[in-house]
Design a protein that fits this description.
Blueprint: E1 8-13, H1 16-27, H2 41-47, E2 56-59, E3 68-73, E4 86-88, H3 96-110, E5 116-122, E6 127-132, E7 138-141
Parallel strand pairs: 1-3, 4-7
Antiparallel strand pairs: 2-3, 5-6, 6-7
Length: 142
Amino acid sequence: MPSIKQFQVTFDCAEPERLARFWCEVLGYVVPSPPAGFATWDDYRHSQAPEDRGSWFACSDPSGVGPRLYFQRVPEGKVVKNRVHLDVRVGTGLVGEERLAVLEAECARLVPLGAVRVELLYDGHDSCIVMRDIEGNEFCID
């Protein structure tokens, strides 16, 4: 059986475009071009039925290495802890105070974007910072 080469991560959310643009800022991702036949995303949205406008949005890694992120509007709100979350890997290969400083700097960059710091996990050697995105989804700065 051949291995799967590509996958996307899908988020259920209330405001797909807003959440996608947040994650673009966090990860350095980009919003792809609008669908074929449309000059802008606004043109595409206006072509849809009113109830479908803004029902989804996506972003992608400009290098083509990371997975596509897809955001789809759902009627229910978030009520429990995520079973899957993203780890934003900014401290790979670092340990101790050096790692902690890099994680803290990234946290300081993300909070003004709307992220919420939840908890620092630090044992003197390894560390991560638990965060929430603008819709309350947990993620870690690792």
